[in-house]
Fold:
Amino acid sequence: AQKITQTQPGMFVQEKEAVTLDCTYDTSDQSYGLFWYKQPSSGEMIFLIYQGSYDEQNATEGRYSLNFQKARKSANLVISASQLGDSAMYFCAMRFGAGGTSYGKLTFGQGTILTVHP
Amino acid sequence: EPEVTQTPSHQVTQMGQEVILRCVPISNHLYFYWYRQILGQKVEFLVSFYNNEISEKSEIFDDQFSVERPDGSNFTLKIRSTKLEDSAMYFCASSDPLLGASDTQYFGPGTRLTVL
Structure:
């Protein structure tokens, strides 16, 4: 079964500290893509970071990094130096293998609400 | 920076009425998607569209739903006879896998549909 799970409904972090948001997945596919999106209270979906299943290096984008542990099937998002504007819902999403094609639907986790305290 | 746009931002309709949600994907993107998010729940895939035809659809995307690319810029989602349970945020997304292996999907700001 292809499944993606975010087990933390809510997380709290102090401003300027780092926080890790968990994401685990289940698939027998060898080729897949992992994405993180941010959804502020205004509702839009903002792409943050991508990790391909064959990428050996963990992806980084500014303050965002992805702790990809393939054997454990986890793709946790690390936000360093949290800011008040980071308060939002965060979704992990996965594009499961599609016969070698690089396009296809995203399957989303349940989301984690992050609250950054001053 | 190019972005996906959606209109209207909020649509209120009576049960049984037809609605059309509009999207303008990022120019030169080739793949288009519709997702929905019922309030407080996760985002669910509805349909993908490529080369003027549906590539994949979910079980949610029944005969009441249809998609169309009527011209070179717009991508629409039509719900023929809305039900109360169609109330949700509807997101359009687009991607171009030729730009890189990630095939990142960029989302529009969403249309909040309320069915009364």
Chain B has no helices and eleven strands. Chain B touches chain A through 29 residues (CB under 8 Å).
